[in-house]
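During the reporting period, our protein records have gained a structure token line. One record among many is quoted in full directly below:
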Amino acid sequence: MDRKLLDLLVSPDTRQPLSLLDGKGLEALNRAIAAGTVNRADGNPLAQPLREALVTRDRKQVFRVDDGIPVLHPDRTDRRLPDRMSALPTPDPAVVAADVARALAEDLGSGDVTAALLPDQPDSGYLLCKQDAVIAGRPWFDATHRALDADVQIEWRVAEGDHVSAGTVLALLHGRSRSLVSAERTSLNFLQTLSGTATTTARYVAAVEGTDTRILDTRKTLPGLRLAQKYAVRCGGGDNHRFGLYDTVMLKENHIRAAGSLAAAVSAARRQWPQLPLVVEVEDLEQLRQALQAGCERILLDDFTPELRREAVRITGGRIPLEVSGSVGLGGLRSIAEDGVDCISIGGLTKHVQAIDLSLKLGPPPG
């Protein structure tokens, strides 16, 4: 297949880069296929050997290559969720720049009339965190200041995802008086909101520590800040659910009703979007059994009672990852995780944001 194309390919659900599997690696895979130990995404054994294949870095997903064209519908070697997301993603600079431009436009308008009263001279300042927090949002903070002063210097003393205590000086800034005060509010708005998201996420992640359950976000984000808040969730130790309506097929009650049945909805999804991961929401154990039979990448248990949830875990037996959603509070999180579900999606990570108390002061830092 085209090597230039290969450099652009990632797994559609784990986002891991793909590499070509050939030689002894392909031979070993085909032996495993012959032994019946490699399953398709729908749970059925993969029967035919592969002439070409792509594989993820963790070797848990295999993708066929038919006549030089990658078929991005995974054949999995197991049914577990991919490993926890570890390294922080690098936010798309174009998205960050667009977020910043939009925010500055609504704040500056035709210009900062108060800053215009100040002498435009070199100045410095410091960024202070006034409460315990997990820090997230440096790219947006930096981009805001650089949009007004390309020569500003920002010396960070903490990294993204760091847990800091009240009174911590996060960064030193060296620029010009006018641009520092003009960028102050917008840069703090980004940092306090995203650090608030990361801090809340870290509390939920801590509540399930020691279990195999992962904390996921949802699409319940602040308008215009989808990528930013999902990045902040990662800074807080959580994982991302789908980014939008375009990257995962998620069949919910209304979709299933409109399609006529769960099986019909799954069949339509596989036929129309075979390259995308499929999540099916179920409301009872009968729908759970239907979803297991139809096959999907994850099953979402919507508002199951504790008894039904534990029975769902027993019935599923690890064949397909289970997600819990609905009214999930911090207090009941641990018991849900200990029931053996794979992930819990929490809308409140991004919806109920309590901003972190930060301030930007001109002059040298205290002490």
In short: The chain is about 35% helix and 20% strand.
